[in-house]
Amino acid sequence: MKEDAEMIADISRYCFYHTYAPVNTKENIDKFMQEQFSNELLEDEVRDPDNTFLLAYHINEIAGYAKLLNKSAHAKLDANRQVEIGRFYVLPAFKGKGVGTQLMRACVNYAKSEQADVLWLGVWENNAAAISFYKQMGFEKFGNHTFLLGDDEQKDWLMFKRLAEDR
Q1: Residue-range domain boundaries for the chain
Q2: Global pTM value
Q3: The CATH number of domain 51-166, selected from 3.40.640.10, 3.30.70.100, 3.40.630.30, 3.20.20.70
Q4: Each residue of 5-46: pLDDT tens digit?
Q5: 134 assigned to active site
């Protein structure tokens, strides 16, 4: 478990830095990464029974992961059972190789196995590539919320995919 948490922390730091550092201040990136992606914090998250981590591989190499929050619910969604994708990271070297699509399918299948009606997530409003991917995977916008990156308040889109039709 400790090895998995360390690997997840490494992927988190690498993906987050390479996605967001070019368009944010070093201070805000550093602060966020120290607060959110320490090995100790990720080890606690991996141990938490309310979280499920799905690891993605390409051939025999780790390519990314998704963190699913099993007891998360958003009041704006009319659904009895919801699963939230808290993180969805694919390492840059594996983008465009189908890893993200397979990982998202695994998220959907997991949510269905938990009898969820809805799968939802938050994505930075300026991350056009991620928004496009989520739309291709059947997600649609249902709102916004504030995301604190260091000391910078940013806006995330909230997106959902209804699963009942897919059962």
Answers
A1: 51-166
A2: 0.92
A3: 3.40.630.30
A4: 889 999 999 999 999 999 999 999 999 999 898 888 989 999
A5: yes
